[in-house]
Design brief:
The complex is a heterodimer of chains A (298) and B (448).
Chain A lengths: L1 H32 L3 H9 L5 H18 L1 H10 L1 H20 L7 H27 L2 H26 L3 H31 L4 H19 L3 H25 L7 H4 L3 H28 L9
Helix pairs in contact in A: 1-2, 1-3, 1-6, 1-7, 1-10, 3-4, 5-6, 6-7, 7-8, 7-10, 8-9, 9-10
Chain B lengths: L2 H40 L2 H35 L1 H35 L6 H30 L4 E4 L2 E4 L2 H5 L2 H30 L5 H35 L1 H8 L5 E2 L3 E4 L2 E3 L2 H7 L5 E2 L2 H12 L8 H28 L8 H9 L2 H16 L4 E3 L3 E2 L10 H32 L21
Antiparallel strand pairs in B: 1-2, 3-6, 4-5, 7-8
Helix pairs in contact in B: 1-2, 1-4, 1-6, 1-13, 1-14, 2-3, 2-14, 3-4, 4-6, 6-7, 6-12, 6-13, 7-8, 7-11, 8-11, 11-13
The chains are: A mainly alpha (298), B mainly alpha (448).
């Protein structure tokens, strides 16, 4: 039961990184791939209907940690206090920026909020998990740089997949450029992780392969496959991280010590079994409804 | 001043701030859904204009409710790690359920609603706003079930210094929660009603457009009905507090000694005899416990310590809640009477409704202060003291930094939201689109 709930939480975090990864990337890239205000709005429109739902993956992941592994939840958040504060501040200004952008007189403040508020969590989640796994300022910096570049790449590929016209062309260039930064960072970060954990080696290597494939695919303008590859790269990176965390979710803490009692875990399992299929179904339906590429109004 | 004090301030500031936006989300969501339903049923243009107008105000506010809510979920672990480790087994379950059952629904369907105007069949689009509004209301239920457990813990046992859930159903049907849910949701509808009323009356004072009278009437009905619900559930909460939280009840009344046939203190010095006993139990002569006597009994049970919450905060917040809440509801009943059978809204009354906008908000803030300051010195009544709940590893500097950052950020955003709301209220609803262009032919609009 403990293993099952660890798997659920790893799944929720992975879903969060994959989904909000491109939200963050699009948020950071929108002012740069959009030549004018309309094109910028075109870019943000690609994540408009979905970013809030994607963010709930984080809320659910953290809520599930609270319920299933209280000591892990409280230990993680209180020991990474200031980075978490900055993540929250980022999510606040980003969310408000996105919702308010079309309603204010001067959207420059909202743009600043969206860019900074996307960059902060994209960097900090990598830094937090790298520091947790490898303990040190240098790994944290490297991990942060890696997830930042990864979000940019993922977001650029998503933009190329979901837009038409000039934004699509610029997004492809952005994807190639960020891919060139993300690949070396991926090699260093993931091989460092693999060097300390045997369990993480296979997914880490697979993640590198997926990201290399993504770069090749975007070069060949296979946007759908490239997006699949960046999503796989993020999912595999997350899998490597959680395989390592399974051994020790926090220094000096085992999963069994952190876990809630069997009764609670059983109840949570039923709730998850009943609700998750619906959640996945209607979120997937949202993506289906908005599957058309976003074009500029004529 | 130590980390504990600052952590408490931070919780107070971020929670009260969060709850400035939440009631509007809860109540206005349903109101907008109602407007869209009216449009769907009647096809009358002005319902659509009102839907889009209040929908925009709703969205400006919604963003703030969401982003400040994330802070709440993280804060338990950040500042209150001892509390979180102690209660997670029980308290975490409703939080996880809130995310799975309510937040996903609310956010996903709201996204579909915002961007789906010209993508979805009309009925499906209407269903989306209802799903989002139901999600908001469901989230209130789950978080209140968690909150009620802190004041009246049920369905658990303590094993090895940690609470363990023994009965999820008992946690979800806690009598305290069942009384609190209609009270809080009703209050949210009063806040939303007061908001719609103020906006509509502002327009009524400037135009002759009949749709504003209709909107004001709808808001009046909503506020008056919600007022009944809040009064009834508030009475029930008081009776439960008599049994479950006697210290809070006594502090709210400033009653120091156990008293038979206790009177209700309107303000210090003016007391209505026997009313407190009657309100608490239904019996004019029942004995109500007083703070000093409860303090003595708690010391016998839990050892030396001060088990009284801050007396003046609890006493006055109760009166502010009652005064502002009741006056809002009273005004709306008066408004319903004066506008009966197609009578126009008197201008003086319309002005009054605009000015009364902050009253229900102040009432809900006072209500939360009563509820949570009144729970002190416990985080979990009878089980865990607030002083023992705080994160041991988090320094004063860290809490001070985050408190400063959140306060500055929140202050700035509050001003921005107010400016934005005022601007969009002044702008008013958009003129109806020319009828000859069928909706399907319109280019998808860029919403952001």
């Amino acid at each position: 039961m403990i293993d099952l709930w660890f798997l659920v939480i790893a799944f929720l975090w992975t879903g969060y990184f994959v989904l909000e990864g491109f939200d963050f990337g699009v948020g950071m890239l929108a002012p740069f791939v959009g030549g004018d205000d309309d094109e910028q709005r075109q870019s943000l429109q690609t994540i408009g209907p979905v970013w809030d739902g994607n963010e709930v993956w984080l809320i659910t992941a953290v809520g599930a940690m609270f319920a299933a592994f209280p000591a892990w939840y409280s230990g993680l958040l209180s020991s990474f206090y200031l980075p978490v504060v900055l993540v929250l501040a980022g999510l606040i200004v980003r969310g408000v920026g996105l919702e308010w952008r079309g309603k204010v007189a001067n959207p420059a403040w909202c743009d600043l909020g969206i860019v900074v508020g996307s960059a902060l969590p994209a960097f900090l989640w990598g830094a937090i998990f790298a520091d947790l796994l490898l303990d040190g300022a240098l790994p944290a910096l490297l991990g942060g740089a890696f997830t930042l570049a990864l979000s940019l790449l993922h977001g650029a590929v998503f933009l190329a997949l979901r837009t038409e016209g000039r934004v699509r062309r610029r997004a492809r260039v952005a994807a190639l450029a960020t891919g060139a930064a993300a690949l070396p960072l991926a090699v260093v970060a993931l091989s460092t992780l693999a060097s300390v954990s045997g369990a993480a080696t296979v997914p880490a290597l697979a993640a590198m392969a997926a990201l290399a494939a993504a770069a090749a695919l975007i070069w060949r303008r296979r946007e759908g496959w490239a997006f699949t590859a960046t999503a796989a790269g993020i999912a595999l990176t997350s899998a490597a991280v959680f395989l390592r965390l399974k051994e020790a979710p926090l220094p000096g803490l085992t999963l069994a010590e952190a876990a809630s009692a069997p009764y609670t875990l059983t109840m949570l399992t039923w709730i998850g079994l009943i609700t998750l299929p619906f959640v996945l179904a209607y979120q997937a339906w949202t993506y289906w409804v908005f599957r058309k590429r976003v074009a500029l109004p004529r | 001043m130590d980390a504990l004090d600052l952590a408490r301030w931070q919780f107070g500031v971020t929670t009260v701030y969060h709850f400035l936006f939440v009631p509007l989300t809860i109540g206005l969501g349903v109101f907008v859904a109602g407007l869209q339903t009216a449009w769907h049923r009647t096809g009358k243009e002005h319902y659509l204009r009102l839907t889009k107008f209040f929908g925009k105000l709703f969205l400006i506010n919604f963003a703030m409710g969401v982003v400040t809510g994330i802070v709440q979920e993280f804060q338990f672990g950040m500042n209150w790690s001892e509390y979180s480790t102690f209660v997670g087994d029980v308290f975490g379950a409703p939080l996880a359920m809130e995310a799975l059952l309510a937040f996903f629904m609310e956010s996903t369907f709201l996204g579909l609603w915002i961007f789906g105007w010209d993508r979805l069949p009309k009925r499906v689009h209407l269903a989306c706003i209802w799903a989002a509004a139901i999600g908001s209301n469901l989230s209130a239920y789950f978080i209140l079930a968690a909150n009620a457990w802190m004041k009246h813990p049920v369905g658990y046992e303590v094993v090895d210094g940690r609470a363990r859930m023994t009965d999820l159903w008992a946690v979800l049907t806690n009598s305290t929660a069942l009384a609190q849910v209609p009270h809080v949701i009703g209050a949210a509808f009063i806040v939303a009603g007061g908001f719609v009323l103020a906006v509509s009356c502002w327009w009524l004072l400037r135009t002759r457009d009949g749709m504003w009278r209709g909107a004001a009437r709808a808001a009046l009905v909503m506020t008056a009905v919600a007022g009944l619900v809040v009064a009834g559930s508030g009475d029930l909460s008081g009776k439960l507090a008599y049994e479950q939280q006697p210290m809070k009840l006594a502090s709210a009344e400033g009653l120091e000694r156990d008293t038979a046939g206790a009177g209700f203190t309107l303000v210090p010095g003016i007391e209505i005899p026997k009313v407190l006993s009657f309100l608490s139990t239904g019996d004019l002569d029942a004995t109500v416990q007083g703070t000093e006597d409860i303090q003595r009994r708690l010391e016998e049970r839990f050892g030396p310590g001060d088990y009284r919450p801050d007396q003046s905060v609890v006493f006055w917040s109760y009166r502010v809640m009652l005064a502002f809440g009741l006056s809002t509801v009273g005004l709306s009943v008066l408004g319903l009477w004066l506008t009966r059978r197609r009578r126009p809204m008197p201008r003086l009354l319309a002005r009054l409704f605009v000015l009364a906008l902050p009253l229900p908000l102040l009432a809900v803030i006072a209500g939360w202060l009563l509820s949570e300051v009144g729970r002190q010195p416990w985080t979990v009544a009878g089980e865990l003291l607030t002083a023992a709940s705080v994160s041991p590893g988090v320094s004063l500097t860290e809490v001070a930094l985050s408190l400063t950052l959140f306060t500055l950020l929140y202050g700035g955003l509050a001003v921005a939201e107010a400016v934005l709301l005022v601007r969009h209220v002044r702008k008013g609803p958009e003129e109806p689109a020319p009828a000859e262009v069928p909706a399907e032919r319109l280019e998808p609009s860029l919403m952001y």
